[in-house]
Amino acid sequence: MKKTFISSRLVAGVAGLCLLLLPGRAFGQQVIVDPATEYQTITGFGGVNMPDWIANLDSSLVAKAFGNEPWQMGLTILRIKAPSDSGIYELQVPAARQAHDLGAIILASPWSPPVNMKTNNDIVRGELLPEYYDDYADHLMGFADFMEENGAPLHAISVQNEPDWSGATYESCDWTPQQLLTFVKEQGDKFAGINLVASESLGFNHAYTDPILNDPDAEQHLDIVGGHLYGATIRDYPLAREKGKEVWMTEHYTDSNTDANEWPNALAVGTEVSGTMQANFNAYIWWYIRRFYGLIQDDGNISKRGYVMSHFSKFIRPGAVRVDVTHSTGADITAYKTDSTLVVVAVNSSGNELSLDFNLGTNAYAEMTGYATAATMNMEPIGTYPVADGALAVSLPANSIMTFTTFTGKAGAVENVPPVADAGEDQLLTDSMNTLAVTVHLDASGSSDADGTIASYNWSLVDEQLSAGAMDSVALAPGKYDFVLTVTDNDGARAMDTLSVTIQRSDSYVDPGVWLDVECGTVGSNWVITEDTAASNGAYAATATGVQILETASEEAEDQIVLNFTVVDSTSYTLFGRVNAPSADDDSFWIRMDDGDWILWNSITGGPDWTWDDVHDTDPGNPVTYTLDSGAHTLYVVFREDGALLDKFYLSPGTTPPTGKGEASALCEPTSVAREPLTETIGLFPNPTTSTFTVESQRAFSDLRIMSIDGREVWSQRFREPTYRTKATPNLPVGTYIIVTWGAEGMGTGKLRVDR
């Protein structure tokens, strides 16, 4: 059933006048703004895009982040990675070029030098060999040249991301303060024409930049002192200011354990940005722009954290100057000016409403407009009110952030009427051709805005963005889906609607079931994997001689094999196992499905050869049927008797046992030696694609497989030498696929959409 959610601006329109901004005589705590006392110049606010680590920002998201219309965030700094591999430079270009065209400046940070330049010849940790300092400087400038040639010139480039982080298990490189000093001193002149940044230490450790700032030969080459705030206390850096250097906070996130819309948790962003501004920082850069804990969520919508950031980024534009604010209110209040504007940002993290009396220190402005974000508001324009003799009386709601500004050209109108979202009628479709890829048409053309236009559309499914168009289509397997449409009008107000789609099977469909080779699961250390050409995938599992668990199943990981899988249909399944049970004393295992009870699979059909037997409870006369819902499930196996051998399982929608070795297991590692896979999310570009796409992994892989949404392998490719990156042209039908990479260091997965 369709449900419509109207923007909270309707609530604000009723409650805002009495809650938020009360013009008139002074009645609250004093806040003195002194425009004559100036501090740092603001360079901007921004975030990170890492297309070789997570999904790239598409054009709609770049516009949402770096545009400054009422429905956009107004960020002005994009931080990207300066890759160690020149083969992936191109991945950085599209989003960076678009952000640049929207007025943003670009900072590039390297996570690792090329591996051949390092002491350990590895992408992780190690140090840069001194004999390669010159080559590394050329490498960084080579990337800068590439970006400029491709329409995305860099404003700044860093020497190293987090040189002091010794716990890294990803791309990284260790530097000492002395090594950084030597590099900047000896190679700094190569960075003429671009701003050089150091040191981007994990906790803004001044010990990494003090030596550079105190060395005249090195200091002349350093333009920006950058650092992160992990485990750090925000503090001023007088030495950097004394030397005329800008100070940038180049990476942090306040919390990755909670949803970015959780309130008032999201308000911590405002507190932190205010803190860096009061500590004379020139720039603040968040970590991932799009992430469930980021400024934009995975569903493509600006989050509460993003709206809080927008209170700074939309109104405090590059070149604004922070001015003095004196108060003892308990709120975090900062003020900024240009030659013609004044902006005040107030963060109230307390559970109490605060009444404030602002003395703006100037009679230059006749009115200011207020914008608020709170539990039920997202950058809501509350009202425009007169300023009498420089005085403005306001009330800050508990747990809120408000911006008061004379500069309103890039924010919404005060009396805006919210839009209406219309995702269309719910749909019932049938997979009549058994393709497992039924086209669903999305149509938001019925949406409207009474006093303006719809500025942006966003479709999401299971909290992931699908499309930024009013109309689109997606191919999906049978199942039930709830699409969420979000529309935003030209004044920044949002509305949402839900489209429910049910895709049913045809009467002729036959469920293929699920094949699971046991050595391809997570195999406990007390199991023994033995190679055998008679076994499926060339190997089987058993326990060591004399190691048995007869009385009850073990809950210890070392005694288990764990097999994760998914089923498309919600139905009943019979579980068959391919086993070799040579005698009545060697014919049993313990079995559990999901969180169910352990069963004793005993009295397995015996003999000297491999055979299929249905999983039953103790006696063959007690067959077990598993009723599973569509989605992910887990099968657990524990050994019982040391002579029983186990090859694979088949989860069948029928009752007829399979024959031979069965079919290939969907996610089997191509080697015959089993181990616990290390799984990462791989990069897929472009995504969606029409044909050719690029696969990018942090770990080398030698096997690439494409699986249908129900777990069937539809395409594969092997490589003679492991690779980190490849292009594939598999000529896939329209649909959604799981891309899997395998290599010596583990497995990578990603979801790919194919459209036409």
Automatic annotation (TrEMBL):
Q: Where is the Glycosyl hydrolase family 30 TIM-barrel domain?
A: 91-228
Please state which protein family the record places this protein in.
Answer: Belongs to the glycosyl hydrolase 30 family.
Q: Name one GO cellular component term.
A: membrane
Q: Which residues form a coiled coil?
A: none
Protein name stated in the entry: Putative secreted protein (Por secretion system target)
Q: Would I find Nucleotidyltransferase among this entry's keywords?
A: no
Signal peptide start-end? 1-28
Q: Which SUPFAM superfamilies match?
A: (Trans)glycosidases (SSF51445), Glycosyl hydrolase domain (SSF51011), PKD domain (SSF49299)
Any GO MF annotation of the entry: glucosylceramidase activity
Kindly state which keywords UniProt assigns to this record, in alphabetical order. Glycosidase, Hydrolase, Signal
- Gene Ontology biological process: sphingolipid metabolic process
| Span of domain Glycosyl hydrolase family 30 beta sandwich | 319-404
The UniProt entry, under Pfam families, shows: Glyco_hydro_30, Glyco_hydro_30C, K319L-like_PKD
Q: Which InterPro entries match?
A: GH, GH30_C, Glyco_hydro_30, Glyco_hydro_30_TIM-barrel, Glyco_hydro_b, Ig-like_fold, PKD_dom_sf
